[in-house]
Specification:
- Helix content is 41%, strand content 17%.
- It is of the alpha/beta class.
- It has one domain: Rossmann fold.
- Strand 1, helix 1 and strand 2 form a beta-alpha-beta unit.
- It is globular.
Length: 138
């Protein structure tokens, strides 16, 4: 079982991910952080945050967020000895080339633009589910 951490500040997008998981019968535990700072606290098991179990973790990351955006979060994650190996898939509306280049420079496993329609979004989540099911995540 893979523990999925969704780092997303938009409540509608969080709801869409939950709905897409349900449509695809994805039963992996889903943890939600509203920004990069909250996500780091959850990953590090800080006392005041809901902890994400330390094994078999995958992060779905938005880029545009308050407090600590996705790129800042990736930099911090990759500089943390205990967290740097966690696979990250960017799931965002940002089609900026600089964001894509920076994300890949920080070793993301993928960069996916959020589809406009819900049906396309469900398909994208189904594809991601196949990916993480086949991946050997420690």
């Amino acid at each position: 079982m893979i523990h999925l951490l969704l780092v997303e500040d938009d409540e509608v997008d969080v709801m869409n991910v939950r709905r897409a998981f349900k449509k695809n019968n994805i039963t992996n535990p889903l943890y939600v952080a509203n920004n990069g700072l909250e996500a780091l606290a959850m990953l590090r098991g800080d006392a005041d945050a809901q902890a994400v179990p330390p094994q078999r973790r995958l992060i779905l990351l938005d880029i545009n967020m308050p407090k600590m955006n996705g790129i800042e979060f990736l930099r911090e994650l990759r500089n943390d000895h205990d967290l740097r190996m966690i696979p990250v898939i960017v799931l965002t509306t940002s089609n900026e080339d600089r964001d894509k280049v920076e994300a890949y420079n920080l070793n993301v496993a993928g960069y996916i633009l959020k589809p406009v329609t819900f049906a396309s979004f469900v398909e994208a989540i189904a594809t991601l589910n196949k990916y993480w099911t086949l991946s050997e995540i420690p």
